[in-house]
Amino acid sequence: QVQLVESGGGLVQAGDSLRLSCAASGRTLSGYAMGWFRQAPGKEREFVAAVTWTGYTTYYSESVKGRFTISRDKGKNAVYLQMNSLKPEDTAVYFCGMKQYSGSYYSPTSYDYWGQGTQVTVSS
Fold it and tell me: Minimal CA–CA distance to 31: which of 97, 95, 98, 79?
């Protein structure tokens, strides 16, 4: 009964910025974490960033650290991904996920719910 909907993707040039949003609705439980993953054609779903339920602890992949910022608004049941200095290799479908109690923040198997994804395309 949990629904996640991403938005904010688009076509941009290298060096540009995008802000992705993920809105959660339905029955949600306190204590969950949220994460962003991305998947390019023919590639595995890749961890991008995650944030704890409190919003005070974040995790990033090395490839996006320093460029992307994850945040959440618990009152709005939303999570965001600010993406700066975008590179062509950032091109992918970006998914937000809701993390179960156990498991690694970095593994997609730790997430029980996923949004439909939003396409991010970065041209050179």
Answer: 98
Q: Which two tokens stand for residue 56?
A: 């005070």
Contact between 37 and 108 under an 8 Å Cβ cutoff? The reply is yes
Q: Where are the beta strands (DSSP E) in the chain?
A: 2-7, 10-13, 18-26, 33-39, 46-51, 58-60, 68-73, 78-83, 92-99, 111-114, 118-123
CA geometry: angle 97, 65, 108, nearest 5 deg: 25
The model's pLDDT over 73-124, given as tens digits with 9 standing for 90+, comes to 888 889 999 999 999 999 999 999 999 888 999 999 999 999 999 999 999 9
CA-based torsion, 73, 94, 90, 13: positive or negative: negative
Residue 49, token pair as written in the block: 């960033």
32/40: higher pLDDT? 40
pLDDT confidence of residue 100? 83
